[in-house]
Amino acid sequence: MTDLAPSQSKPSSWQIAVGAEGIAAAQFARCGFDVSVQSGADKPRYDLVVTNAGNLLKVSVKGSGDGRWDLTQTYLKRASERSGKKTDHHGAIDLWLDNHGSRTVCCLVQFEGVAIDQLPRIYLASPAEIAHVLHETADRLGDSVLYEKYGWTSANGSSEFERLPSSWGFSNQRIQQLLTGRAAETPSGAGSSSGHKAHSRITATVGPAPERLELERRSAVGLGL
Q1: E strands of the chain, at which residues?
Q2: Do residues 108 and 122 lie in contact, with contact meaning Cβ atoms separated by under 8 Å?
Q3: How far apart (Å, rounded) are the C-alpha atoms in residues 106 and 85?
């Protein structure tokens, strides 16, 4: 009998996505949430629905194995056509943000440099928070990729280092911040000089009006969530 050696091939983007979704679902379950996984050809623009005591979040899970998340690349062509610019990164970011509905949050799962017996690094953020970071990155690097960390050179020539906010780390406290719309605001006065619409102060308010929340709660109960 021939022994089958473990595969050393690099996982595909689809395999990374499946792994990220499963790990995200498991972590929300560990935090006491009921989790419903979205699937099928007509899958909505989110991957999980998590509920607890009448509270509900739609979760868009994004996995990565290279330290970056390409969230806005599919919007670049449309943004450039609308603005007439050759490459409109800021416009693509705004289109990406506009594509997210009420009570949707993003769960970013990073596998780069993580051993098979360890959990990947996991971040939770509202689309508005992510868009703000993307606009800053577009100003500094000239692209609209979300990096876990990167280096850049400031206007005075000094070398700077940026990474995702530590407050985005997956935790019960972070989940509650996003549920109640009390996630950290971006620094006042921050923003771009590139002409895109102002993002100097963004509050991560993800909760809809009370009547809509009640409707979503009833729908969740009807689905057995």
Answers
A1: 34-37, 48-52, 55-64, 68-69, 104-110, 121-125, 146-147, 149-153, 159-163
A2: yes
A3: 28
Q: What pTM was computed for the model?
A: 0.78
Residue at 5 is within a domain:
no
* Structural domains of the chain, count: 1
Which one, of 145, 151, 140, lies nearest residue 130 by Cα?
A: 145
CA 109/CA 89 separation, integer angstroms: 23
Task: Give me the DSSP letters along 136-186.
Answer: HHHHHHSS--EESEEEEE-TTS-EEEEE--GGGB--HHHHHHHHHT-PPPP
Whole-angstrom distance, CA of residue 2 vs CA of residue 186: 57
Is 133 part of a structural domain of the chain?
yes
Q: Which domain holds residue 25?
A: 13-222
Q: Hey, how many other C-beta atoms are within 10 angstroms of the C-beta on 121?
A: 18
Q: Which of 119, 152, 120 is nearest to 133 (CA)?
A: 152
- Tell whether 194 is covered by a domain: yes
Summarize pLDDT for 115-167 with one digit per residue, the tens: 999 999 999 999 999 999 999 999 999 999 999 999 999 888 899 999 999 99
Residue 6 belongs to a domain: no
